[in-house]
Amino acid sequence: MRYLFKCGTFFLLIYLLFSCAYHNEEELYGNEAINPCDTVTVTYTLDVLPVLQTTCYPCHNQAAASGGVILEGYNQAKAIAGSGRLLGAISHSPGFTPMPKDGAKLPSCDITKISRWIEAGMPEN
Ligand code: HEC
Asked: Which of 37, 64, 71, 123 could lock 109 by a disulfide, CB 3.0 to 4.6 Å apart?
């Protein structure tokens, strides 16, 4: 009986140890879930514009339109996006010059968000 009790305590400790480890793992995944790629609520102002501003405006603004492409301003961005050239360039599709020029490809989350925005009809939201 004493042995059984000791044994039980031992297994209880093991169980607690593992459940604790498991719990930590859950917390880890939980933290990752705080920053998922949210492609459901995509807006021009919060998702598309910041990417264009930081990575594209330097070469595609009103004053310096590399390749004749202006992305500064909603109407300009919408026109390029509507023509298919925006997505073609950032997704490095054949037939388009890969963008950002001489830079790293955008994070896939940004590309997905921009493509969702285009699919949604490029709303000015
Ligand atoms: C370092 C300057 C630079 C940056 C940064 C840059 N571009 Fe460009 N972009 C160019 C130049 C120069 C061209 C002209 C085409 C060429 O070089 O062949 C061009 C062309 C384009 C084209 C036309 C491509 C085609 O095949 O029709 C699009 C669309 C475009 N850029 C979008 C973007 C987007 C979107 C970004 C940001 C993610 C971006 N660019 C960042 C320099 C840049």
From this structure: 37
Asked whether 105 and 96 are in contact (CB, 8 A), the reply is: no
Using CB atoms within 10 Å of the CB of residue 62, give its burial: 0 to 12 exposed, 13 to 18 middle, 19+ buried.
exposed
Give phi and psi for 93, each to the nearest 5.
-75, 150
Q: What is the pLDDT of residues 54-98, one digit of tens each?
A: 999 999 999 999 999 999 999 999 999 999 999 999 999 999 999
To the nearest 10 degrees (0 to 180), the angle between helices 74-82 and 108-119 is 90
Q: Where are the domains of the chain?
A: 1-36, 44-119
Q: How far is the CA of 34 from the centre of ligand 1 (A)?
A: 32
* Angle, vertex CA 104, rays to CA 46 and CA 122, nearest 5: 30
CA distance 80 to 8: 69
Cα distance between residue 72 and residue 75, in whole Å:
8
**36 Cα: distance to centroid of ligand 1 (angstroms):** 28
